Every structure is written in C-alpha cells, then in structure tokens.
Amino acid sequence: MKPAVLVLHGIWNADLWVRPLARRLSQAGFDAQVFGYQSIASAPQVAFTRLAERLRDAPPTHLVGHSLGGLIALETLRRHPDLPVPRLVCLGSPLKGSATAHALLQRGWTGTLGRSGPLLDRGCQPWRGPTQVGMVAGDVPRGIGRLLGGIGDDSDGTVALAETRLPGLADHCCVRTSHTGLAFSPLAARQVVAFLRQGHFLS
Question: In a 3-state reduction of DSSP, which class is residue 38?
C-alpha cells in the first residue's frame, strides 16, 4: 500500500497550484492528493477543522504545505495532536511569522491577506508535537517581500530564512529557488520525498 500524502497550497492559490508537486510525489511512490481550502474569504479555523476531519479516520497520512499551507497544517496538528500524521514538510512557510504580511497589514492592505492575515503575521508556536516536521526553504530573493522592503537577501523574496527556522523542527534545508518556485522545483520535490521517507533531508 502506497504511503498517503496530502498537499496544501498557499495563500492566493487554488489547489491546481500544487498539483505538479503532487504529481512528482505520486511518481516517487506516494498516494498524493491535494487538499484545497479558502485562503482569503474563510478564517483559517475553517481549514483547521476540515483538515482534521479529513485526517481523523484515515490511515497514517503525511502532509506537505507550501507557504500558508504549512502554517495551516502545523496549527491543525497543534490543535489535534492525536491525528495520524507521521511527517509534515513545509515549503517556505513563515512559521515564525511573516514580515511581508506584517508590512502589508501596516499599510492597511488587509484585503490582500484576507482572514489569513493574523496567522501569517504571528506565525506558530515552537513545535513540540509527535509529528516530525521538516522545512524546505528557498534562497533566491525574488518576490513581493523585497519590493515592500520587509526582508533582505537571506530570503526567498517573500519569506526570510529566519522566519522558517521554528524551534522544534526535525530538519531544515535550502534549495536554489524563489518562494513561488518552491512549489515547482524538482530539487525541492526530491527533498520532500527524502524527508517523507526517512525523516531527514538529502545532504
């Protein structure tokens, strides 16, 4: 039986955004499916509840979340620590809070983040749950965060590398791509596969 994986997209994206990543995981031997949710119009709590319901009576299922999707996944696991999720990989998720989101909120552009704004702004608590959590970060500084002046060169252009280093992670790695590119990068996908299989990234 193939190990199950659910892939979560980020803000402003539909589930089609991460289908290429899900395809790569399927080609690597996983039963990969996409979990879609409303990232702007609905509160994150709706996604927490729906994801928990999807996982509760399922066989053990890994999670992979791009950007906001990683925060949604991790916060769901914090609220429901009994869910059968062996491993979670976040792709460029600002788990310690996003300076880009903060800059948008400070400028009054709350509509651009919708009801996900507060979660992106504050991030998640240090991780102490049973699920092994890994982070694949990008280090090509090309994105909206650079335009807003909220982050520097040590970033993927939208999320600073420091924002991805949440205490409690099992492993962390960087790949040469931007924030958007993390969802499409073959190297990022290989790192995801490695962590889901063995609990650590390729050196």
Answer: coil
Query: From the CA atom positions of the chain, what is the Rg in Å?
Result: 15
The segments of the chain whose pLDDT lies below 70 read: 109, 143-150
For 77, the token pair is 């696991």
The pLDDT value given to residue 14: 76
At position 175, the amino acid (one-letter code) is V
Q: How many CB atoms lie within 10 A of CB 191?
A: 24
CATH of the domain at 54: 3.40.50.1820
Say how many domains are in the chain.
1
Please write the tens of the pLDDT for every residue from 85-142: 999 999 999 999 999 888 888 877 677 788 998 999 999 999 999 999 999 999 998 7
Tokens for 70? Answer: 């990683």
CB 7 within 8 A of CB 64: yes
Measure the CA–CA gap between 7 and 203, rounded to whole angstroms. 24
| d(C-alpha 89, C-alpha 84), whole Å | 15
The whole-number pLDDT of residue 60 equals 97
In a domain, 39, yes or no: yes
pLDDT at 107: 79
Q: Which amino acid is at 179?
A: H
pLDDT of residue 25: 98
203, part of any domain: no
- Residues near 13 by Cβ (< 8 Å), separated by ≥ 6? 39, 66
Ranges of beta strands (E only) in the chain are 4-8, 31-35, 61-66, 87-91, 132-138, 171-175
